[in-house]
Design brief:
Strand order of the largest sheet: 6-7-8-5-9
Shape: globular
Largest sheet: 5 strands, antiparallel
Number of helices: 8
Structural class: alpha+beta
CATH architecture of the largest domain: 2-Layer Sandwich
Number of domains: 2
Radius of gyration: 21 Å
CATH topology of the largest domain: D-Amino Acid Oxidase, Chain A, domain 2
Number of strands: 10
Oligomer: single chain
Order of helices and strands: EEEEEHHEEEHHEEHHHH
Distance between the termini: 52 Å
Mean pLDDT: 95
Strand content: 15-25%
């Protein structure tokens, strides 16, 4: 998709050939937003953590040990400054992502073929050699997909001038690692607050409504980004599992 101004409106040209003219465009096109650069040139920052994400289909058959461990829920496993998060899905698959500290250029220097699960398994066996072998079941089946994802975030204090007919929400506005579990929540709240601002009779123009929304959205996103980076750091720090166990063992207020 490409977009530009035409007769005072935004003209969007989609890959399928469709052309749409719009008075207002809201970028909700994710972490690699094509619209965000029209709003600002702030670049994402590498967090130091790279995820290898996977999904195991028919997990009861293809990963029976791990599937039994999850019991329809979620597992956070931490150790040796690494993590694995394993989640059950309603249709019977398991999704997972490893978290490891890697260099910013790791994907271009690691020599792993991420289209070959055995190549990824060889890396996993070496990188997670201090973990129990049962985790290798993540790569036991051909009924899966694997994709590497370096984790980026935007600065907590990012800012840009409001435009009268263009704004953004969700990961397009404030991408961050997943280790506080706030990404989807933030996007839904963005949409609610933007709708409230656009429908607020106290706002004299769409430009004013967008500006008001973006101020509060950036402040909220900055606070959550800071918290997320703190969570990312301690989950991948020495003794993380013990710290989490101690946190859950603390008596309630």
């Amino acid at each position: 998709m490409t977009m530009g101004k035409s007769d005072g409106k935004w003209r969007l040209r989609f890959r399928n050939g469709n052309i749409v003219d719009a008075d207002l465009v809201i970028a909700a096109d994710g972490a690699n937003s094509k619209i965000r650069p029209l709003l600002c040139d702030i670049k994402p920052i590498y967090s130091g953590i790279t995820i290898v994400e996977g999904n195991i289909y028919h997990a009861g058959k293809n990963a029976p040990i791990l599937n039994e461990m999850v019991q329809g829920g979620k597992i956070f496993a931490m150790g040796g400054e690494k993590s694995i998060i394993l989640s059950a899905k309603g249709e019977g698959s398991l999704s997972f992502y490893t978290g490891t500290k890697e260099a910013a250029d790791w994907l271009t220097t690691c020599s792993i073929n991420f289209n070959d699960k055995n190549s990824v398994l060889n890396w996993f066996r070496e990188r997670f050699s201090d973990w129990p072998a049962l985790w290798e079941e993540l790569f036991a089946s051909d009924e899966m997909y694997i994709i590497p994802r370096p984790m980026f975030h935007y600065p907590a204090d990012q800012s840009w001038p409001a435009q009268p007919d263009l704004t953004m929400l969700g990961d397009a506005a404030h991408r961050m690692p997943p280790y506080a579990g706030e990404g989807v929540n933030m996007a839904m709240l963005d949409a609610l607050e933007l709708a409230d601002s656009l429908g607020n009779p106290a706002m004299n123009t769409v430009h004013e409504a967008i500006a008001a929304y973006e101020v509060q959205m950036r402040q909220r996103a900055g606070e959550v980004t800071t918290f997320t980076l703190e969570q990312t750091e301690w989950i991948h720090a020495s003794g993380a599992a013990q710290k989490m166990a101690a946190m859950f063992a603390e008596p309630g207020e």
